[in-house]
Design a protein that fits this description.
The structure is a single chain. With about 400 residues, this protein is mainly alpha-helical. The protein has one domain. The protein has helices spanning about 5-10, 15-35, 40-45, 50-70, 75-100, 120-135, 145-165, 170-185, 190-215, 220-230, 245-255, 280-310, 315-340, 360-390; strands spanning about 100-105, 105-110, 115-120. It has a three-stranded antiparallel β-sheet. The longest helix is centred in the last third of the chain and has 34 residues, at about 280-310. The relative contact order is 0.14.
């Protein structure tokens, strides 16, 4: 075995179960992306089906590298790093909102050189979670005071979610929900949280009504209302927009118990975005109910380990950070899978570490690296505490 590989293995720390889940999900991701990008390859790469496989493999390897590097950093350093990142994320969201790449009437990403894109909401999501963990664990702040909480918690959360909202309602809603949960766990007064939530809900209703009255202000409003109407099967309007949901259900129904075997999906030729938003439907079609259940189990195991690390974390900041980041990943995964089986309206959320993508996978990898960093410090602390007993 080469020396550098041996050194990497020797320096790998943190929860071994989480490492195993990451590798298993990465293997599933490679197989599912390779199977689901055939049509894309014939459309844009002249039938070169390996193009997207190798591209995705490079992205995954880069993601594993980010996990490794991030988990080596002492978790307390993330407090300062993401406090600074907050002042970078907000301007980037503003730039994206007004000058970002326009896709499907939504500006979600910045165009980078070499035909690369950067989804700024991924940075903002991770940044806000870690910023809230820092503030909630700050002993010098009286977070039970409404004015203090409003300035340091409510306002940053509202600003970031509001900047994400016009282009990506589901991401803003998920991030807002996680922020509220973190505040509750962190000790903010429940009545203050309810007041903040009520005010935000009122602002949301006003924004949606404004978008319906003036479509140019919020072009995505009609898309949101159509998706909700389709989900509840409201009338005949928008039936064509339900095409992807119908194709997803066909894929899942045809998978049976053990599926059609890897690479034998037929719905990948009809299902829009089978490699990202609806990759879970392709997994169930090819691996059956057993494969789908196994995928759900992987994320449940991840959540269990996150809760375990949270309970054993030596500091409040580490505990809040791990829970916020871990819950965000698992919550997003459950939403993606719920959409595929038509339990929720279409949201456009990728399946973490499985769906094809660059920015999404890399920030998911950083998130997992942060969790492993806390796990590493927890293990080190527990080992030090056991030394006197064994002496």
């Amino acid at each position: 075995m080469p020396t550098f590989i041996r050194n990497i293995i020797n320096n790998t720390r943190g929860d071994r179960v989480i490492w195993a889940v990451v590798f298993i999900l990465s293997i599933f991701s490679l197989l599912a992306v390779y199977s689901s990008t055939g049509t894309l390859a014939y459309k844009y790469q002249g039938g070169n089906t390996e193009y997207y496989l190798f591209k995705h493999l490079i992205i995954l390897l880069m993601g594993l590298f980010l996990i490794y590097i991030t988990h080596l950093i002492k978790f307390t350093y993330f407090s300062r790093i993401f406090q600074i990142a907050l002042y970078i994320a907000i301007p980037l969201l503003v730039i994206t909102l007004f000058a970002g790449l326009n896709l499907n009437e939504a500006r979600r990403a910045l165009q980078l050189p070499f035909n690369l894109t950067f989804q700024t909401s991924d940075l903002a999501k991770l940044t806000l979670i870690l910023y809230l963990a820092r503030v909630l664990s700050h002993k010098g702040l009286d977070i039970k005071n409404f004015k203090t909480a409003a300035l340091h918690l409510y306002l940053p959360s509202l600003i970031i979610c509001a900047l994400i909202f016009p282009a990506n309602f589901s991401t803003a809603a998920i991030l807002f929900s996680i922020s509220i949960l973190l505040m509750y766990i962190g000790g903010v007064r429940t009545k203050h949280i309810l007041s903040f939530t009520g005010i935000t809900a009122l602002l949301l209703v006003l924004a949606v009504l404004t978008g319906l009255a003036f479509p140019k202000v919020l072009p995505r409003t009609e898309t949101w209302t159509n998706r909700i109407a389709i989900f509840f099967d409201a009338g005949e309007a928008g039936k064509e927009d339900a095409y992807q949901v119908e194709q997803s259900k066909i894929a899942i129904a045809s998978g049976g118990i053990f599926g059609k075997a890897p690479g034998n999906s037929t719905q990948r030729n009809f299902l829009p975005h089978p490699y990202s938003d609806f990759i879970f439907a392709i997994i169930v079609e090819e691996y059956g109910l057993a494969g789908g259940a196994f995928m759900v189990l992987m994320f449940l195991i991840l959540f269990f380990r996150v809760v375990r690390i949270t309970a054993r974390s030596p500091r409040n900041f580490g505990a809040l950070m791990v829970f916020g980041v871990g819950f965000s990943l698992v919550f997003q995964a459950m939403i993606n899978m719920a959409v595929a089986v038509n339990l929720l309206p279409v949201t456009g959320q990728p399946l973490p570490l499985v769906s094809m993508g660059g920015t999404s996978i890399w920030f998911t990898s950083i998130s997992i690296g942060i969790i492993l960093s806390v796990s590493k410090e927890t293990e080190k602390k527990e080992a030090n505490e056991q030394q006197p007993a064994t002496a």
